Every structure is written in structure tokens, then in C-alpha cells.
Amino acid sequence: MPLLNANHLDWLRPDWPAPNGVRAVCTTRTGGVSVAPYDSLNLGDHVGDEPTHVAANRAIFEHNIGAQPIFLTQVHSTTVLELNTSTPHARAADASMTAQPGVACTVMVADCLPVLFTTTHGQAVAAAHAGWRGLAGQDGVGILEETVKRFSALAPIK
Q1: What are phi and psi of 146, to 5 degrees?
Q2: How many degrees, rounded to 5, is the angle at CA 143 between CA 102 and CA 112?
Q3: Cα–Cα distances in angstroms (integers) from residue 84 to residues 44, 95, 101, 113, 152, in the given order
Q4: 19: cis peptide before it, omega within 30°?
Q5: Domain 68-158 carries which CATH code?
Q6: Using CA atoms, how far apart are residues 25 and 14, in angstroms rounded to an integer?
Q7: With contact defined as beta carbons under 8 Å apart, do 82 and 118 qualify?
Q8: Radius of gyration of the chain (CA)
């Protein structure tokens, strides 16, 4: 399994005023082991790729970000999941948040948007999968409103 330094990959890093210790990255398809049509760094276990390739790609990703990513089963909902190191992969939700260092909130996007959150001092982070169904939500409360509400309860503004 290739282990690459994220600085040498063409991954995208947002230019945002995040506090020290809070990092974000958007992967591209390069740097993994999957073969066509999933080549190369496919992180999705729901698209038909060889499970061993997805596991190897996720290990490459984890090694390069230096944190434990938790992958959701995104269902275009308003469900927000609080993560820790024992949270299993594949829980149904469209946003996640954590106050535990070393845990990475992940979202997969194609034609949807990733929306990232952090507290001023970086003690908590969140990531939301913002597709139109999740944005529309139910009764006027979408995934972003629900994430802000849950995130504010996790890390109250001081």
C-alpha cells in the first residue's frame, strides 16, 4: 500500500481562518489503489469498488491526514452525529461533529457541498453534507440549521 505525503498530493486545502490545529482537506482521485472506473483514491464503500481497495484507500487517507476519519452513510437527511474514536463507520447521517482531538469529520460530495465548522479556538469541529434535500430539510429546518444547533450545544460560544 502506498503511503504518500499529503503535501505531494493534489488535494485541495481551503484557505480559511481556522484556528491552529484545525485542518481541512478535499481529496481528489489521485493517490489511491482502486482501478477503473473507480481510480484511484475512491473512499466510497457504496459504489461497487473492491472493498479491499476502499479499505486501502481509507488507510492512505488516514495516514496522510494524521487523524481517524469516520465515514458516514449519507442519506440526504438532517441527522447530525457526534463522533469519537469508537464511533463505527457507516452510521446514517449527513453531518458530524466532534470535540475529540484526532477524530476527523468526513463528508463525501459530488454535486453537493461540504460545509465546515469550527469554534473560535478549535476545541470542536463539524462537517455537513449540503445537498438540496438536506438543505430543504423538514419544517424549514435543514442540515445546516440542525448542525449549527447541535454544534452550539457541543461547544457553546463563550
Answers
A1: -65, -40
A2: 85
A3: 21, 14, 9, 24, 17
A4: no
A5: 3.60.140.10
A6: 7
A7: no
A8: 15
Take residue 149 and report the three cell numbers written for it: 444547533
Separation CA 116–CA 96 (nearest Å): 10
What's the CA gap between 73 and 5, in Å, rounded? 27
Give the span between the Cα atoms of 83 and 36, in whole angstroms. 32
pLDDT in tens, the chain (158 residues): 344 455 557 899 988 899 999 999 999 989 999 999 999 999 999 999 999 999 999 999 999 999 999 999 999 999 999 999 999 999 999 999 999 999 999 999 988 999 999 999 999 999 999 998 999 988 889 999 999 999 999 887 65
Q: Which residues pair with 26 in a beta bridge?
A: 12
Q: Which H, E and C letters describe 39-64, residue by residue?
A: CCCCCCCCCCCCHHHHHHHHHHHHHH
Query: What is the C-alpha to C-alpha distance for residues 123 and 108, in angstroms, rounded to an integer?
Result: 23
Taking alpha carbons only, the member of 125, 145, 8, 153 closest to residue 69 is: 125
pTM: 0.89
Q: Where are the domains of the chain?
A: 1-66, 68-158
Distance CA 30, CA 41 (A): 5
| Among candidate residues 58, 98, 92, the one with its CA nearest the CA of residue 72 | 92
